[in-house]
Amino acid sequence: MIRFIHCADLHLDRPVSIPAAASADQKAMLQKAARTSFKNACETAASEHVDFMLISGDLYHYETRSLSAQRYLRNELEKLARRRIPVYVIHGNHDPVISGSAALPMPDNVHVFSEEGERRMLPSGDETVHLYGFSYSGSAHAATPMTKLVKENKGGFHIALLHGQEAAGGAHDYAPFQLRDLKEAGFDYWALGHIHQRSNLSEDPPIHYPGSMIGASRKETGAKGVLMVELEKGRVPSVQFIETAPFRREHVVIDCTGIETMDKFVSACFSGLEPNTLYIITLTGIFSIHGYSAGDLHRMLAEEAEAAGIFLDIVNDRTEAESQTLSAKLQNELNEAIEETKAEGPLQQLTKHPVISRHLPDTLQEDDTFWQDVWRELTVGGGGSD
Question: Which of 144 and 322 is assigned the larger pLDDT?
Answer without folding.
Answer: 144
